[in-house]
Amino acid sequence: MLAILALTTSFVFFAPAPQSDGDSGALDAAIGRIVERGLASDHAFTWLTELCDDIGPRLSGSAQAEQAVEWGRARLEEAGADRVVLHPVNVARWVRGEVERARILEPADHRLAVLALGGSIATPPGGITAPVIVVKTFEELRSRASEARGKIVLFNRAMGETADDGSRKLGYGDAVQQRTNGAIEAAKVGAVASVIRSVGTKGAEYRLPHTGMMRYEDGVKRIPHAALAAEDADLIARLVARHPRVMLNLELDCRDEGTVQSHNVIADLRGRERPDEVVLICGHLDSWDVGHGAHDDGVGVVASMEVIRLLKSLDLRPRRTIRCVLFMNEENGLAGGLGYAKDYARELAGHVAAIEMDGGAFGFSGFGVSAGEGGVAMVDDVARRIRSVPGYESLRVRPGGGGADIGPLSRAGNVPMLSIDSDSETYFRYHHTHADTLDKVDPRELARHAAAYAALVYALAEMERPLPRLAAR
Ligand SMILES: [Zn+2]
């Protein structure tokens, strides 16, 4: 009932813009129909419920990840894709195990909230017990190398804190370095283990540790690496500032179980005039093994699928092919994105754009664009048409879109990259935590993302002249 009301009331806003020529008017009309139908649809949320509740967490290499592959294939066939294929990729299988403990033993007894980071080795049974040294940066660790030997290093740099020179607030990219490379840097100065302050939004913490990908380096000793809740990192920092010795015990029994075969799910809606030209749209099907991967990246998966379903249900078949890819292994290896760039290398010259939605669905804000000169303005011309729909007035087009899975194909083929933008401050409260569950997703907000996404994709697949390609890198 609500849906019918929304549909009726929004109709009046889709008169073609007065300055439009014939084609432009047709594009306005198509965008109007897509957005209106998308806003009235609950398909994406229904699919998300299946993915999060009926399948659950789906770390690469797990049985649930394989269930998600079969689910994605079946639903994309039902959505009306012309062809759905499973593209094999080999992924690492890492298992968290049952034991995961961090505990301050001196000067007081505190049990901490901890998650092993993906790819970490285990500690010996009983754990590693050592004094803690707290640092903010790799430079600081190197300058205090002699103090770090035999200790557990805590990297305590917060996302959202101000950079040392006061120039800006640190973002995800700054803070995540300690997660990806912390164990390498700590081992180089003789530390026995390392822990990090979880990478999440500062000022909105609920003592949740955030997991994520970490790396080792050949030739550098492998040491256990885990994430503490921000509050627990602060506790350690306060204790270390006031006491000569702070002893930490860290026990993990996570393990690597080698490599297994998995798949990207690839579904095409064939173009009516230029089927060899492709607009690739995607999210990633794998998630971390904590939470249910609702915002990361269930919403990107179901919104990408909804693009196909919406266009098919409206009988809108654009000039070019739309290819929906549900990538595997974005979180801990990127085998899906790298495998696609390699195995589809010969088709990349025909890829006119690649769009990834992997920033959650907390508050749709617009599109990010990385394209050749004039590309941002071309996308803004599409955005202008969507802005005429109530609720989309503030839709913003910014330079600099992209996504982890589409990075490799873009680099290999100079393919323009776009992203579907959302409220990242809220996203990073839940990112890679136990709390990334279905209840955090607002069905109407998800539909709002998917409807604008579908309109953008249709326009890119239909417009006479494609976006200017990126310069060779
Ligand atoms: Zn993600």
Please, what is the average pLDDT? 94
Number of H- or I-type helical stretches: 15
Quaternary form: single chain
User: Main sheet: which strands, in order across?
Assistant: 1-10-12-11-13-16-14-15
Main β-sheet: number of strands, strand sense, barrel status? 8 strands, mixed
What share of residues are in beta strands? 15-25%
Pairing-aware structural class of the strands and helices?
alpha/beta
Bound molecules: zinc ion
Uncertain residue ranges: 1-22
Our measurement of the CA-to-CA distance between the termini, rounded to an integer number of angstroms, reads: 51 Å
User: What's the total count of β strands?
Assistant: 16
Fraction in helix: 25-40%
Radius of gyration over all CA atoms, rounded: 24 Å
Question: Can you give a write-up of this model?
Answer:
The chain is 36% helix and 23% strand. The protein contains 15 helices and 16 strands. The chain has helices at 2-10, 22-39, 43-55, 63-79, 138-143, 145-148, 172-175, 177-188, 230-242, 294-313, 335-343, 375-387, 407-413, 424-430, 443-462, and strands at 83-95, 100-106, 110-112, 114-116, 128-135, 152-155, 193-197, 225-228, 247-252, 255-269, 274-284, 320-327, 351-356, 366-370, 396-399, 417-421. It has an 8-stranded mixed beta sheet, sandwiched between helices. The chain has an 8-stranded mixed beta sheet with strand order 3-2-9-5-6-7-8-4, with helices on both faces. The radius of gyration is 24 Å and the shape is elongated. The N and C termini lie far apart (51 Å). Residues 1-22 have low confidence and may be disordered.
